[in-house]
Each structure stands twice: as structure tokens, then as C-alpha cells.
Amino acid sequence: MTTERSRTAHSESADQLARRALGTLRGAGGATVAADHVEASGVEAGGDPAVALGAVRIVGADVLAPYVLTGQSPPPGETSAIGLALSALPPAEPPPPAPPEGAEAAWTMAWVDWGLVTVLARVDPAGSPVRAAPLPQGPPRCDDDAPRRMPLTASGTETAGSGIREGWVPWSIRMGKLASLALPGLDGPVHAAAKSGVLALARGATRATLRRDFPTAARITRWLAWLHAEGVPVPFDPAPLTEHTPLFGGSDRAALDTAIARRLLGLEPV
Question: What is the pLDDT of residues 188-240, one digit of tens each?
């Protein structure tokens, strides 16, 4: 399988998994998300369980969002499937450094893994088959006064001390890639960065909507909904964005982001 075909297969599988999570969240799907997805991949013609397990890692903690947001415990088969996905490709230890010192994709994946492992241990502390994931390095913080497209420089990481300079456009896009961490009960350096970057997130969500980049808009709006749920003041009510974005369709992952945002805003019943 070529790299491009592999990337496409994983992306399609992740969308299918997000669709299952969305159905379970809305009470229209099965009792399990990851377990059903992995099982289906093993019986479908041309299915590949390895791709399905990779999709679990891509979707991250959102696989467990239906349980987090409803207060239900996942069935044993669910935790086993997620544990299998994590054991097949264990999270990197130590985690890669944050950009620009480290590769953006690897660092993002480390945070997605952290969210998945942390939520799994929280919703099923007795049955979680994996140990705690190492905490990756925190993200750089946005400088609202910097030129909006200013890229992050080597002196701009949180651990480097002073000299943080990154525009809100690349910063908000990076935070959008970490939207699976915007769930109740999760807290860490990424969440601290969101709380200190409210204006940048509001700008990023608005920009993505105006550019009709609705997947990015859904991801960043979800952060605004999380901030609102945490009692952090935001520049505008994010609810209209959660109503506007679904009108234009998009991927199943974007639909899941929007549904989670609406739950965080109290717009849909739990």
C-alpha cells in the first residue's frame, strides 16, 4: 500500500469511527464505539483491523466522548479495543518536543494519545488496560500583538522563557488540531494555553468560518465552547457558530466536534 493510499484509508476509517461516536452520543448508535469499529473492519470485505486501530489513535479521546458527556461507563469490550490500539503502537516515550524544536505532527499525536489514555483511565479506572501516558511539552502561547501570520520561532517555546512570538492564525490552527482535548475533566498545559489565548481562538474560529473552512471552524469553536463551560469569558457567544457550521455539511469528525461543542454549551440534552 502506498503512503498516499494508507493516509486515505486511515482518514476514511477515522471518519467512520467519528460517525459511530456521534451516533452513540446521540443515542442512535451501538453501545460501543471503538469495539464495533474494529470488529467491523475484520469482517468487511477488504477491511483492515490495523487501519481501524490506527483510526482509534487519530480520533483520540473523542472515541470516549459519548461516555464522558453522558456519565456512563464504557463496556469492557470498549476498553479492550482501545487498549489494543494503544499497545499496537505505544505512545512515544519520552514525548517529542513541542514545535519548532520538534516535528508538529509527532507532538500533536503525543497530545492526542495523552488525552485518550487519560480519559480512558478516568472513565474506567479499574479496567483500563494501559498505564498513564507521559505528559508532553506544553504548546507555545500566542502573542495577540504579533502579526497575525507570524510563524513560531525557536525562541518562542514556553520552556525557552521570554520572546514568545507567534501570530494568532498559526496558533489557532494548531490548537484546532488538539480539539479532542476539549472535554470535561481534562486539564493540562494545552488547556492553560486555551485559557490564555481566548482572543486568538475567537479570531481563529471567525476566520475559518469566513473562509468556509468548516472543519477548522468546528474544531476551534469547540475550544470556545469548552472555555464557556469552564466559566471563562469569551468575546462572543459561540452557539450561533455551532448552528451555522452543520448547514454546510463536512466530515463526520467535524459533525462530532460540533455535537460535542453543543453539549458543552448545554444546547443539546445529555
Answer: 999 999 999 999 999 999 999 999 999 999 999 999 999 999 999 999 999 99
CA distance 263 to 65: 10
CB 243 within 8 A of CB 207: no
Out of 62-71, 148-157, 218-227, 239-248, least confident range: 148-157
> Nearest-CA neighbor of 242 among 208, 270, 212, 265?
265
Query: DSSP secondary structure string, 101-149?
Result: TS-HHHHHHHHHHHHHHHHHHHH-TTT--SPPPPPPPPPPPP-TTS-TT
Reading the block at residue 235, the C-alpha cell is: 468575546
Q: Between vectors from CA 251 to CA 204 and to CA 43, what angle results, nearest 5°?
A: 145
Which set of grid coordinates corresponds to residue 165? 512570538
Residue that has been written with the C-alpha cell 494508507 in this structure: 6
